[in-house]
Fold these 2 entries.
Entry 1:
Amino acid sequence: MISRPQTLRQKVRGPNARPIATLVTQGDRAAGRVQSQFGDFLPGRLNELRHAADSLLGHPGDAARRHAVVFIAQDLRSSSVTAGRPRLGAILASLEDAAGKDVLDAEILRLHLDVVALVSNPGLPESDYRRLTADLARAVAHRDKA
Amino acid sequence: MGMPATAIEAADFSGLHLLLVDDNKFIRILIREILRGFGFLRIAEALSVVEALERVRQNRPDIIICDWMMDPEDGLTLLRNLRGSADPHTRMIPFIMLSGEVRDDRVSMAIGEGADSYVAKPFTAATLMTHLLRVIAKQEEQYFLD
């Protein structure tokens, strides 16, 4: 007799099954532990972003270099937000836009990189963050108008 | 045999084999630790589409969680490869797409290509659990329809 394989639901049943709420709590605790280590991952990835951006600034029309900057910025943005660092994520989203423009504005890209470096410090006071983002937004708006 | 429609209130994930595909080390560790918190014991990891396809051949995972944005080949490429496979098991593996993009057209594209669920970053342990339970229930519906 040929028996059909078990469904996934059948596989997760059994005497050792634990309430979903308990498992979620355990998952949350594990996530908290990993999120607290985000600072260990960040410097290496920021260096990669800086390196890719420098390479793009040296060859502003190069599509592959542009793609590399946007790719790293997107990747870092989603990691930052997932790690509970939305301020950094917001600046990286703006950097993605700046790097993805048809005509690259070198000064705007450099300005973003400087702000990313400052905001990567989780201890940056909120007032400083607000000032930096306001300055950045003004610079971007000014360039867009020009 | 009828099709059970009850919600899963308790689970033992230790018997499931999950493949996690992401080239971002931080996100990979984060998801792996959350899954361990849920009780998963068999978690294989891949950093690229090529590596993922090899793991699928070797381990025949029950569920795949894959990030969309990877270089040089993305998660959609992996999904298309799996859904176009000659092997019926490989074609049907429940697939959860993970992405920093929340645009409707991206979600529709992933679902249209055969993803069973779509998780937008940032996500919590509870979100991940919801999507796991969703694909487990969906796989069972499919099983009883065949």
Entry 2:
Amino acid sequence: MSGVAELLRHPALWRGGGASAPETVPTGFRTLDACLPGGGWPLSTLIEVLVPAAGVGEIRLLLPALRTLATADGGAPRWIAWLAPPHLPYAPALVDAGLDPAHMLVIRPRAGLDRLWAMEQALRSGACAAVLGWTGTANDRVLRRLKLAAEEGRTPGFLLRPSVHRTDCSPAALRLALATRDYGLDVEILKCQGGGPARIERLPIH
Amino acid sequence: MLEGRPATITPAPASRQRALASVPAPRAKPIAGRGQLWLAAHFTRLPLDALLPGTGQARAAVVTAPDDPRRAVVARNERAARQGIAPGMSLNAALALVPGLRVEERRPAAEAALLDRLGRWALQFTPVVSLEPPAAVLAEVRGSLDLFGGAMALVRRALAGLSASGLSASLALAPTARGALWLARADLAMTVTRIDAMPGIAGRLPLTCLQWPEDTVATLAGLGIASVADLLRLPRAGFAARFGPRLLDELDEGLGRRPAARRRHVVPERFDERLDLEDAVEATGRLQPPLERLLARLGGFLRARASGIGVLRVDLVHRSGAPTRLRLALARTACDVAHLRELLRERLGRCQLALPVVAIRVRSGVLLPLALRDAGLFERGRSANPDATARLLDLLRARLGHEAVFSVLPVPEHRPERAWRIVEPGSTASLPVPWHAARPARPLWMLAEPQPLENWEGALVTGPERIETGWWDGHDVRRDYYVALSRAGVRLWIFRERPPGQGWFLHGVFG
């Protein structure tokens, strides 16, 4: 028995359930927190959010966590990178949402390959509190690079992609699919390291 | 422009000297300026020369004061002077004289830059050069006289150099810096070599060459004082009490009765090295090794001076034609060669070489002091690290271009499309006061242009919010905004023009 316990302590061994809870930041939604291991968005990894159409509420879903991350550590505001967003973030709305717009780093590369490169750099640098990326198509190998960069830079990377990628293979630690219903948002957890699939209906986002 | 040979002036007539003797001086004998000889160059048309280099003669041109309702003429060129335009004239008067006049607004920054260049130029005569803003350069040339073959030869050489660059200056030599400056301002082409001749010569100068404050000169004129000699007859104690000790000190400095300390003009140190390649290189990848050699030297250079740089220029020199120039502007003062190497690799990767490269030249901008940072004893890995942010910014810009990375700031403005602007990331410009506390919500995504919505069928959630403003600048908007829910469940910000009838437009998405 002692031999098994020793083996289980080996750092290269990853255990699906019951592993030590990852470092997290609360999502700001209690029902969602309850479904996630550690009670929030995992930090230092890649999170994939699949949306049926840009603007269904994906930013409002992330806003409470972004606010917490940007002002974490009490003192100076930290950066949040917006990589190739579909439209320009609107400064007055950012202020309304409680974010300091001067610390939102908007990055608009022209070429698709540059997007992935820029996202990897932003994640690896450790300079940002969070990185939001609209990278479009990306294969498994590229996503794995992004995940490694997020782990190395200890930065959460939110990858926002269209729902058509739902069946793709992805190394992201957490995969969510969003759908709108009435005035709320249905959140389906497709994959969650250290937890299982779950479905939260009508999350009240405002 | 100064013409003819500078004349040597003998001491003033005996009558003047008696008058001067009655002025009580702090010391009987001159103490300053012994053994010194200052060359003063006063650039009469500096405001013009700074804006219209070399071409000033082709057409009548003037420079006007920027924040003056009359737009008084500050400087004019030769042609404008011949047609009767004088400094101080209002622009309307000048235009009445010369209808086709070229008018430029004065730019003090350009003048300062030109004066700085002139200071560097003067360093060819002596290492002791001092600037006298706004329009004069002083150089102590006693030690250089033998090298240049005497004072006359030196002045001739200086004048030739200046006129070759199309600059107009009046030069004078005197044993004190301020004395030389007075003579140059008075446009007296003089060489005064003996300090005891200074009071006599200065006495003949008009008060304007002292460039004292206007109200002081007006008060003195009211007292019937028109020349420096008149000034010197005033009792010292009374003069100091009335006009302050600083002006008295200036007089004493000019006459050599008081030592004057001047700030040396020092050319800032820069790194500038060139490496010739053994073979011409056509692929940017092969430029990396020689570039790293230059960067290693730059690293040593910066370490030795405990400095960093904000700008780095790399010229890829071709056998003929202009070099390919790369310029890195760093977000933060850097001295780390590894960081520069990484930035240059990205920049070179973007660069298209039209011709083979035969040499590389690396130049730094002005050296900047490094800001030292304390490493906190209990610092956690997650805290905001300004270096990491600056590095990321540099790296992204090196590959994506400068404009691809930015931040946005709100602007207090009712028209939604004008209520924001692009700023440098992390700019500390203060956020506007929340003047719109009661304003309805705004969408997180804003479309670049409102898009017409064909056959709009969604549901309106809240509204209308009426925005009707901007009639004064021709971009007036008259709109009713609504928050709406599209059939796909996306919350939209849409508007209808007033008066209604033109249909719906999509302006933002709540995200």
